[in-house]
Amino acid sequence: MKLHRHMKKTIVSVAAATLLMGGIPTLAPLSSSAVHAEVVNQAATIFKDVKAGLWAEKHIAKLSLQRIINGYYDEKTATYSFKPNQSVSQEEAVVMALRFAGLEKDLDSSTDITFDESFQVTKYAKPYIQLAFDKQFLDKEQEYSLAGEDKANNWGTKPATREWVTKLIVRAIGEEEAAKRLQNSESSFRDADAIDSKYVGYVNAATQMDLIKGITNSKGTSFEPKDPINRASLATLLSRAQHQIEVNYEGQSTGIVSKLTDKEVALYVDGKETTYQLNDQTAYYHFQTENSMRKQELIEYGDALVIAENGVAKYVEVMGVEKKVESVVGTVVLYNNEEKMLYLLVNGKPEGFLTNDQVIIESADGKVLQLADLKRDREVTVLRDKFRSTPQTIKIVVSSAPIVSTVSGKLMSKSNKLVTISQTTTTNTTGKLDTYYLAPHVAVEINGMLDASIEQLVVEGDADGNAAGDVVQLSINEDGQVTKIKVENRSVEVLAGVKAFFNKDLPNYIILTDAFDKNAKTLAFTADTRFDMNGTKLDKANALQMLNTNVNVKVSYTSDKIISMSFVTEYTGTVVERNTVDKTLTFKLAEGATVKLPYASYGNMAMPIEKRGISNATIADLRQGDTISVGMNMGQLQIMNVRVQATEQMQITNIDLANNKVTFRTNQNTTFTQSINKAELLGSTGLKLALNRFKVGETVNTTFIGNEMLKMQSIDSGN
Predict the structure, then answer these.
(1) Nearest CA among 67, 66, 84 for reference residue 11
(2) pLDDT at 20 > cutoff 60
(3) First to last CA, the chain
(4) Which end of the chain is least crowded, N or C, by CB within 10 Å?
C-alpha cells in the first residue's frame, strides 16, 4: 500500500504514509439538522472510510485539499483510505503542524542533523523536528528530558497524547503567552487532575479558543489527556486552529460571494473577482457546523472560503451570516445610460448608483419594471453591495406614485373618499373651495397622536362649536389624489398611566389622576370623543360603566376636550428608569407621554419578565431604551408583567412547514426552535411571504416581544 498526496503525487517513503492528520477527538459532532433540513448523503472526500456524516468529515476534506494531510492508496482496489481512528506519532504530528503553519518550504534537508542519543526520530522526520525546534513549536530541552525519561520508546514513533499535541498546536499558532496566563486557571474538565502540570495552561488556552471542547457522556465532560490522539481528531484540531493563524494555502481564497448560480460561484477578493465552477463533486460547509450542507445554503454577498483546482471549486465554506449589502432610499434625479449610473437625491444630496444589465427593477408589489419606469422625483429603494470600492447596484424597488405638490387651507368637509378645503388665508370662509379625492390608505398626521385617521379631523363649525376647524396641508400625488393630511394649527396631548373617575353631577367631564393620587386633571367629552377597549369601539354609556372594573385609561385631548379615551390592559414604550427600591418602572410611549407606575411582587417571586434568550429574566435585565410591553392590573394602576421587544439577525437552520416552526441560529451560535404562528412573514422589500418562500441557510431579521415572534423578514434580494 502506497501513500498518495492528494490523489496526484505519490510519496515514495513508506514511513511518510502515516503522516496524516486529524483534529481534537474531544469535539462532539453537531447534528446535521443544526443548519439544514435534510442530510447531505454524498461524502465530501475521496477516502472510502470517511463516510458522509462522519464527525470529522469537514476537517478531513479541507485539510486534504490544503495538502496538509495525505491518504493511503490501495493499488489492488484503486481506492484511498484515511484511517481516522489510527493514532498519530509525535513526529507525524510535528510534520502536520509545520504544514499547517505553511513552513514546510523552510525545511533544510541538506544538513546532517544530529540529536541527543536518547532522542530517536526517523531520518525522514529529522529536518521537520529541527525546524520545529527553531520555530519554537517544541521546547528542545523539555522534549530531550521526556525522551530520556521514556527510554523504552523512540521519541518520534511514540503515540502523541492529547495534552502533548495541544501544547504543540497552541505554540504553533503563537499563543504561548496565553498558555502562561492561564496556567493557574481552573479547568472545566472533570479529569483536570490528570492533565500534567506542564500542559495545563495550553489545554486551558485551547479550550478558551474553542479548539477543544471535551468528550461528554453521562458522567460529565472529560479531556482524557493521556490518550493517544487519532488522525480524525488531529485533523479537527488543526482545522479549527486555522482561525488563529493566517496561511495562504495553495488554491485557497477567502472573500465575499459576489455572484452565485447553480453552476458558478464568484469570489471578490482584494478588488478582484474570480469565478469558480461548481459540480457534483463540490463539497459545501458552514463555519458553525461539522457536517456538509446543500449548495442552496450558500449565502450570496456573504463571506466564504473556496479551495479550488483548475478553476473548479472543490470545497466551499460559509464563513459568516451577514450579507454585505445595504438599502438606500432616495428620489430619482436622472439615469445616465452612457455611464450606466442612476442618480438619486438621498437626504438632500445627489448620489450615483452604478448599474448593469443584471440589475433587477420592480415595483413595491413585485411587478417587473424597466429603466423607463424610473421617473424623475419617484421614490426608490436601492439594494447595493458594500464591499466594492465602487458599490454595484443589485436591485431597485420603485415606490408608489410620488408627491408632486402640496396645498393648505381650512378643512370644510370630510368623508372616506373626499375632502374639501378653503384656501382663503383669512377667517372669511366664503373663498374658493377645492375638493380632492383621497388616495388609498391616506395618512393623517396630527402632532402628538399616533395612528390618526379622518375621524379625528375637525371640520369648520362642527357640532361641538369649534368655529375654527383644522388648518390642514394636503400632499397631492401625480394622480391628483391626497396621500397625506397634516393638521397645522393644533396638537394632541396624551395622558397615560392614569386612572379615571366619573361624577354623575358632571356628566360631560372625567377626572384623571396618576398612580400616586397626584396631578388631578378635569377634561370634557365632546360628541366626537371616541371610546375603546384594546381597539374595540365602545359607546359612552358602556365606557363609563367599564370604569367600575378597569380604571386604567389613556386619554388624548386638545385644549380641555377629549379626543379619545382608551381602556388599557397593556402599554408599549421604551424604558426610561427602573427603581427597585420604590418598585416603580418609568417608560416613554411613542406618543411622547412619560409614564411612571408601580410594579407588582408576589411574595418571594419576582414580577414575570420575558426577554428572548434570557431564562427567568428579572427587573435587573431591563435596560434603558429597551422597547417593552407592559401588562396592567385592571383594577388598579399597577404593572403585572413585562415583555421586552428585541430585533435580532439570525440564520434559518431548519424549516418545519407541517408544524409552522423554524429553527434559528443566533449570532451567539446558539440554536432554538420557534413557532411562527403569529409572526408576520415579509420579503426584503416588505411584501408578505408564505413560509415556503424562505430557505434553510437564509439570514433573516426577526422581531420578538418576550418569547413570541412578531416578525420575520428576509434580507435576501431574491425574496
Answers:
(1) 67
(2) no
(3) 53
(4) N
